């Protein structure tokens, strides 16, 4: 009725749709007479949404299509021809639809027309008094239907009242007429139709809607009149606001009559009223029958009960109550009848006594359940199961009764007697009983655990139990409705909260097969529980904290696996946790005005806005009475928007912070692998929030994530939190940043999915999204009234037509966030012009209306329909402008800054988080980020280097430009010290190789990977071999499926690359040879295919040798032939005879140096391939033989070696050619004999003899002339020997003497060695042995290198026959018969030679190995290792040397020494352990004398030099390791008088530092080893340190002791070394402590001696402190470990504390080592140590002493830790206490002293102030 005036017409003059009621008529519905019940027949429920459109066609296309069909019918009907069959069929269908007998009779009421439009005053009136409208022109089809259809209709004929003028003054206006008099309706018949269709009759049931009697007409009744507008109000006086009207593109304000129509009560139709009456009558009849049966229920005197009562009731199953129980069928009918009456809104017509009596009957059924047991027992019989099923039936009946009771209580009646607290408590009790004893155990039962009996029974009886579960869900939902609508007791609310929480946190099955009832069936009940909990949260603000606490304390019950945790299925997204959805819904509810606040909103809601009318709404869920008093003391309608929003927003953030802080605090105290799941749960919660971020129906996700991000930022930036907390924060920040990037990507994809041509709304959203993604959007465009916020609300309004509470909370939260943003912008007033400010002010008023009345927007404005895509895009746009998404740049910067942290784990974690962000959005990668990552690849931590390398590898795929600039840095990481870093670098290099075509890049990568083939770690070497096979060989395996031309081109490119790689250096040759041997070996998976590919490569290379243009880049012939030599050495069978013949010309011309390289390569190929050929061309071999013989005199050593072997191989093939070689050797011997007679030997003669000796040595080594002795004797008649080898040795050996020139001796020893290698017996000759002895005695390095190289070659040949180096592998003897035994196990004369060389020259070989670090040392090491492998000497003789050589900086020396040491340790562990102390000393000497480095560890990263030794020890017995640590501590310890302080610095000090630093950086295997070591170190300090401290106090600081005569005892006092000193032992209480003073004259030698001692002990103490911090042992002392340490804890592997590095420890040791620089420094060092021993800075209490003493003894192996806390007390072993206040001086004999009295402990001297580098606080290491 808005806008009506006293004349009963609308503002525009149109008639009202109904007559205003009179006072009498309206009074019965007013609040003055009664409380308005919830009855739609009286006042219908208001509609939340806009009125639905009545249009038939939804689109213009549908309208045009219908118009075309209608025009077609009109055309057919208008034609002169006969009517078409289609038209006849359509007419029959329409007539059937318009059959009067099938149509509903409508009784229309129409008000008379009181005032017409002024413009139509002269228009004629129709019969009902309304103005006549223009006659409609009907189409042909419409006329045909009208003429052929008989429809009776009627209309009222009212009498129009007297017209009144609009300009009449409303202040003088009074009622002019009584209500109009209605005349009887007139029936009009369509006579024309009746004639044409006589079969169709009008309906006889014609009724008059209303006819007033004369008495009624005579009564004048007052009418309700609403005053009209003042006379001065004119349309032209309205003001236009263009800036507001400009935004009406998508929405427009509803017309007043439309708003009035929305607010009109909907009249019930006749059929609906009939159905409602029928439902009421049915319920009344049923209740009367039930009550009558109840009255008849009592049996008569005969004991019989009436049959009627038996049909309705059954005795109570428990037998404890006399009240009967309704049978199930009657109860089902009763529930249905009650539900129908409530649905019809007629429950008020049922007497309250009836309802009360029904509740009492239901109570009987409920109480019958509470007394029955529903639990399932184990091993039940069939009878037990039948009884249980009967109880289930009773239970279902009781729950149905509970539903009836709750439906009555929620129906809206106001009588107090139906709201019995006892009844409510009975319902709650039965529900809790059924859930706890029956349903929850069934849901939690699994087929594999102890509940298998329950699972089996439930699976069989699934149908009945599922029904029970569904009924429980309905009861719970009704309970929630009751608590919302009715103010109940707190106990009931708490009970319902408990039930809901219990259901939410019941552990459901992870898969359907493990669920007895089905996962989704129970999830539906969970959702009901969530809805109930959320409703209570929204209704009762005082319950919110309790609800939060219940949820949070139950989180640990949730599953921690992501798949099983997420059972809440979203409509169009990934599933999330139900608890995640619940928490978000609670936060959204916090941002929405509560139900009570909405109730308080008055009808003059917009009192301050005169342009708007009142639109107050009554809340449909809240009764008008029976509501709790509100806590709010002010009316929101009187507050400003900022005040309302601030309260809502602050409450929301407070609740979000409460949730977040709880989860974070619990997560900080747990680990991902711990018993408490909070760390994993936090990850799951964040993932759930991120998965719905930007979703229209979950705006709370942004609030929770924003709060989480704030907490994570605080964790990272604050210094109060430990590194693990910061790591967690960095991890989660990376996850959240990735979620923001995902949202951006989603917005981009959604924007692309929209079409700008679809609608102007889509075009506007696309523009906004592009501006938001580019961060160029104006905030006012986002916040405007028709902006994305409004679109989201309209979209949610369409979804929430069924009043979904979750969507309503989402709407409220969106409005609050929108309003908060607007208020913030207005308060900031930054860069806002007047137009924008005016727009925001108007928006502020509109937002206030939306907050106070959620239905105001739909009631006042219409909006263009919003599609799902548009709604989601709008939500994404608004979310990206929220604070959380704006922090993406800050997140990335914080992660980058954490990459420079001093803690390795923080660097690594931040790197991984950066990867997450870069993977989602590579556009944020720039040069600065890349350089930060590059710097981290050189970090001291392997973990950081590995993470940085991983990120760098991914950056290469995102930005290829990074690859070219940083390839060298990645190649450098391939040689990293850490195995994992090397492997990752190799994988990255492989990827770069495969995606690059440049030969230079591929060649550099191939070279780097080849170096890893000989890596010390076998796994790295294997990875390198596998990588090469994949990139060089595997791509050609499918050659048969590829075009031959393409395959040949690919092979040519690959060969060209291999040739280019070979050119990179000599180091590539041997590695590539070993690699090809591995690829072609029988152990390879693709040996046959690899062989074919390599053979094809060899053929391609031969083509390149003939014509270099055949290969890309046209490599030189020399380089191609050099590459071919590698293939020839790897497998000679790759070559053919024809290919070798093509090389014959290259043996003819060798005049140039380039030709010499070609010549040498050809010879190498010949030497390796000739023995493998099965057929030869005699002429070819003869030609080659002649060419080789021709150039013997001109060739160098390398060529001579190849020529000699080739000639002997050819001799074996051609036969009868040995005479030429014999002549050659005899001529050489003759030449030597001729030249040696010259005296003295000039340079020319010497050169000639050297040349002869070279030829003689190579041919003597390569050719077996023993079968041709006769030829030699024929050529040399004067020779009387028996072996040609002896002849050659006799010729060479004289030139080894010292009288000859050194160059001649060098060649003589080289040739002699070659002869001895081929003929080992020559080693045993006395003249040969003497010559070798002289070389070692004279320490001639050049000759030693020659001799050792010959020894190495000999031992290498011998190892091939040994067990470990046999050519036929172990285990293949069965295949090869006795062949292997004949090679490796048959004794010969060489065995004695090997033993002879090992025993005679081992000492010299070890000396050479430990005396240098060059190639000579490598050769000597190889000989030592070979001797040990062959078992030629006792392991003790070489063991210490091998350990010392492990510390060599040369990786080759270190590798082979380590491998042999490990082998010896495994074979002889118990015997070898005794040599370890000698080995440590030898390693120190090696480092000091050879490498000139006395430090015990290397930096970058910190690694002990003896780490390989400890790695070997870790493979053995733990007792051996503990003994090693104990012995090493004893070696560090000293006796003060015997300590040497000579040297700069003293050698004892350097040795102590070497050992201590090794102990500090060992990688320990078990916790008990560290505890044992710490105990040993403490024992040294507290034992020896006491003597040193006493000497300092007495001899340096001059502290005076005044002993009592009867307590004093004289012992020798300390002094300088080799002098006897005196120490006075005294009880502490008798010591007089004046201020310490320093003697005026201090013996400098004595001061230096004591300083050296304190330096050793201080370094021991620093090491002990560093170990405790590094391995986290200080936590136990600090009381951070609540449980007692067990043997299991001691045996576990230790874990390094995050953030503890060796930098500060290293600096502190360096400071201590500088203490000898000056007397002042020495004095300061002595004072510092004295204070350390005198004052206990750690304040260790007795109980901790006892515990740590127990651990120390257990770690040492003396006893086992016990879990029994009541065990006997243990006494710490001597020296076991650490750093406690020294109770006085002690002698070596341990003289007993008096017990110290309580409270007497005082420091001897005043503690000095801390200075830089001080270690007064032992835990001060970083």
Question: Could you characterize the architecture of this molecule?
Answer:
This is Sister chromatid cohesion protein. With 1822 residues, this protein is mainly α. Among the domains are: 64-231, no CATH class; 270-539; 589-602 and 641-886, no CATH class; 1534-1549 and 1564-1822, no CATH class. Helix content is 58%, strand content 1%. It contains 75 helices and 8 strands. Strands 1-2 form a two-stranded antiparallel ribbon. It has a two-stranded antiparallel ribbon with strand order 3-6. Helix 29 (788-799) packs across helix 33 and helix 62 (1435-1446) packs across helix 65 (1476-1489). The protein is elongated, with a radius of gyration of 52 Å. The relative contact order is 0.03. The N terminus and C terminus are likely disordered.
Give the secondary structure arrangement, pairings included.
Blueprint lengths: L22 H5 L32 H19 L6 H13 L42 H8 L5 E3 L30 E3 L2 H6 L17 H5 L23 H4 L5 E3 L2 H8 L6 H26 L11 H6 E2 L10 E2 L1 H17 L7 H19 L11 H28 L11 H24 L7 H9 L1 H24 L4 H15 L14 H21 L4 H10 L8 H4 L12 H13 L4 H6 L40 H28 L9 H14 L8 H18 L5 H31 L6 H14 L5 H5 L4 H12 L5 H24 L5 H19 L3 H5 E3 L4 H13 L2 H4 L1 H11 L5 H17 L6 H10 L5 H17 L2 H13 L5 H17 L3 H13 L6 H16 L10 H19 L4 H14 L6 H20 L10 H14 L6 H6 L10 H17 L8 H13 L6 H18 L3 H19 L6 H20 L6 H7 L8 H9 L9 H17 L7 H12 L3 H21 L11 H4 L2 H6 L4 H23 L3 H15 L5 H12 L4 H17 L1 H4 L3 H14 L7 E2 L4 E2 L2 H8 L3 H15 L14 H15 L5 H29 L48 H27 L3 H4 L9 H5 ...
Antiparallel strand pairs: 1-2, 3-6, 4-5, 7-8
Helix pairs in contact: 9-11, 11-13, 12-13, 12-14, 13-14, 13-16, 14-16, 14-17, 16-17, 16-18, 17-18, 18-21, 21-23, 21-25, 21-30, 23-24, 23-25, 23-30, 24-26, 25-26, 26-27, 26-33, 26-35, 26-36, 27-33, 29-30, 29-33, 30-31, 35-36, 36-38, 37-38, 38-40, 39-40, 40-41, 40-42, 41-43, 43-45, 43-46, 44-46, 45-46, ...
